[in-house]
């Protein structure tokens, strides 16, 4: 991965290849399940983080409107 530019498909393919190399069903049959579970947990964690951030921004948005006594803007 030394010459791969970060953020490119080639870079991510190399990262995924490193993870998938651990899925050796003969010597470590639990690794494949752990890879899938790890991916799911990471996805769930990021979803929860962004969901909470969106709720915080919505709350801040509402508080600013109320503080400034601004009417809700209609969507056009």
Explain what you see.
This protein has 76 residues and is an all-alpha fold. It has a domain at 25-67. Helix content is 66%, strand content 0%. The chain is built from two helices and no strands. It has helices spanning 9-20, 30-67. It is elongated and about 65 Å long. 0% of the residues are buried. The model has no long low-confidence stretch (mean pLDDT 90).
Taking all Cα atoms into account, the compactness measure Rg is 22 Å
> Poorly predicted ranges (pLDDT <50, ≥5 residues)?
none
Largest sheet: none
Mean pLDDT: 90
Structural class per helix/strand content? mainly alpha
Shape: elongated
N-to-C SSE series? HH
Number of strands: 0
- Helix-residue proportion: 55-70%
Q: Strand-residue fraction? A: under 5%
* Number of helical stretches of at least 4 residues: 2
Q: How far do the termini sit from each other?
A: 48 Å
Describe the protein's topology.
Blueprint lengths: L8 H12 L9 H38 L9
In a few lines, what is going on in this structure?
It is built from two helices and no strands.
Short key terms for the protein model shown above:
76 residues, 2 helices, 66% helix
